[in-house]
Every structure is written in structure tokens, then in C-alpha cells.
Amino acid sequence: MTGGSAIERWRDKMLSERMLEALNKQVNAELYSAYLYLSMGAYFESVNLKGFANWMRIQAQEELMHAMKFFDYINERGRRVKLEAIEKPPTEWNSPLDVFEATYKHEVNVTNMINNLVNMAIEEKDHATYNMLQWFVAEQVEEEASADEIRQQLKFIGEEGRGILMLDRELGQRTFTAEVTK
Ligand code: FEO
């Protein structure tokens, strides 16, 4: 698609409409992830597991950072971010294990989304977007691994209260390190 003005033509060259739309959707998906983890954090607060709640709060902050990476990238490529409504997340879970089963499943879904974006960048011969996405490819390996580790620990612990409290203390140690994205 070719726009009328010189600047529009330059923009068309920079990022295809198809790629732009997919990246815009990913901003929304990352914001949804933040919302989901914040909701899980609220659940943990309600059952007095402050360490788990802290882990989720930090996870939500990381997701906001992911959203901002896509937001900044779209702007850097001279295109316009269009924010959409964020879907309502679930609010109730049956147990900490239930939450981490959902967390792990969600991260596997996000990995699939990132892989689809990489496939699209290859199809579009968009090397810059391909390159930007490699950070997310590596990040998703970590995201899946950390959710899976806690999920496996919870399976091992079962319903045992003391084990849950020990894990709660450990997850309370997690801190957020802001990354400068620009
Ligand atoms: Fe933004 Fe947890 O992936």
C-alpha cells in the first residue's frame, strides 16, 4: 500500500501494515499478561500468601515492560500504536498449583504468539523486526522455565502447609529490575 505523501511512502517501506497490526496486537497481549498476573497477585493477597503475591506483582511489572518494548519499537519504526480494550482476566483459582498451571499454560501461549511474529517477520523479509523479536524468543525460554519450576515445586509440595509457606517466603524475595528500553 502506497500513501500519498513522501513521509507516508517512507513509512510504508519501514513496517508493513500486516506486521504493524500484529505488533499492535502483541502490545495488547502483553498488557493482558500484566493484567492476568496482577489478578493472580490479588488472589494470593486474598489468601494471605504475600510472597506469591509479590512474585505475581513483579511478573506484572515485567509484562508492562514487555508491552513498552513493543510500544517503543512501533514508534521507532515511524508507525502509530493503537491501543485496544484489554480483556477481563479470571479472578478465582482453586490453589497455588492451579494458578501456576495457568501461568505456565499462558506463557506457552505467549511463546507461540512470539514465534508467529518471528514467522511473519521472515515472510515479510523484515530483518529489523526479526532482530528485535530475538530478545523475546530468549525471554520466553526464561518465562516458561520460571513458571514451570514453581509449578513443579508446588506439585512436589502438594497440600502441605509448611512447604507452601517456605515457598511463599522464597517468592517474597523476588525483586524487579527496571530495564532501560530506550
Ligand atoms: Fe511477556 Fe510473560 O511474556
Q: How is this structure best described in words?
A:
It is elongated, with a radius of gyration of 19 Å. The chain contains six helices and no strands. It has helices spanning 6-14, 17-46, 50-76, 96-123, 127-157, 161-171. The protein has one domain (14-171): Up-down Bundle (Ferritin), CATH 1.20.1260.10. It has 182 residues and is mainly alpha-helical. The two termini are 30 Å apart. Helix 2 packs antiparallel against helix 3, helix 2 runs antiparallel to helix 4 (96-123) and helix 3 (50-76) runs parallel beside helix 6 (161-171). Helices cover 75% and strands 0% of the residues. The structure holds MU-OXO-diiron.
Low-confidence stretches: none
CATH class: Mainly Alpha
Q: Please give the alpha-carbon distance between the first and last residues.
A: 30 Å
Strand content: under 5%
The CATH homologous superfamily is termed Ferritin, core subunit, four-helix bundle
Name every ligand kind in the structure: MU-OXO-diiron
Structural class: mainly alpha
State the gist of this model:
The protein is mainly α. The protein has helices at 6-14, 17-46, 50-76, 96-123, 127-157, 161-171.
Attribute tags:
mainly alpha; Ferritin; 182 residues; binds MU-OXO-diiron; 6 helices
Task: Draw up the topology in text.
Layout: H1 6-14, H2 17-46, H3 50-76, H4 96-123, H5 127-157, H6 161-171
Helix pairs in contact: 2-3, 2-4, 3-6, 4-5
This protein binds MU-OXO-diiron (FEO).
